[in-house]
Amino acid sequence: MLTNVIPKLPMRNITATKEFYINKLGFSEISDYGDYLLIGKDNIELHFFTFKELDPKANYGQVYIRTSDIDTLYETLLFNKVSIHPNGQLAIKPWGQKEFSLLDPDSNLVTFGQEW
């Protein structure tokens, strides 16, 4: 019955969000409604809603994205000078996933993982 899940994350500034996800992470814009942004890459889609009063230090927005080639993705992001979270370096986790994490401009935690 269920077919897909699309995370909705807060953003303070649509231009900064686009810059990060499109220019640094390689997503494409699907739609821009001014205060609501839809982006996608491969088979996933993320939505962002404007929350101008968001305090990034108090933001607990998170998304976990599975990938089929985590090593190449990690190397590509490093090459593109994307900052990896200091506590989220590429590593094999006890739960059987190889993962790394980063923070977007609004401190949404984006974790990429692959079954190991």
What attributes characterize this protein structure?
single chain, 116 residues, alpha/beta, 2,3-Dihydroxybiphenyl 1,2-Dioxygenase, domain 1, 4-stranded mixed beta sheet, 2 helices
Description:
With 116 residues, this protein is an alpha/beta fold. It has one domain (8-115): 2,3-Dihydroxybiphenyl 1,2-Dioxygenase, domain 1 (Roll). The chain has two helices and eight strands; from the N terminus they run βαββββαβββ. It has helices at 14-24, 70-79, and strands at 8-11, 28-32, 36-41, 44-50, 62-66, 91-92, 97-103, 109-115. Strands 1-4-3-2 form a four-stranded mixed beta sheet, with helices on one face. Strands 5-8-7-6 form a four-stranded mixed beta sheet, with no helix packed on it. A hairpin with a 2-residue loop joins strand 3 (36-41) and strand 4 (44-50). The longest helix has 11 residues, at 14-24. It is globular and about 40 Å long. The chain starts with 7 loop residues before the first strand and ends with a strand. The model has no long low-confidence stretch (mean pLDDT 96). It comes from Sphingobacterium psychroaquaticum. This is Bleomycin resistance protein. InterPro entries: Bleomycin-R, Glyas_Bleomycin-R_OHBP_Dase, Glyas_Fos-R_dOase_dom, VOC_core.
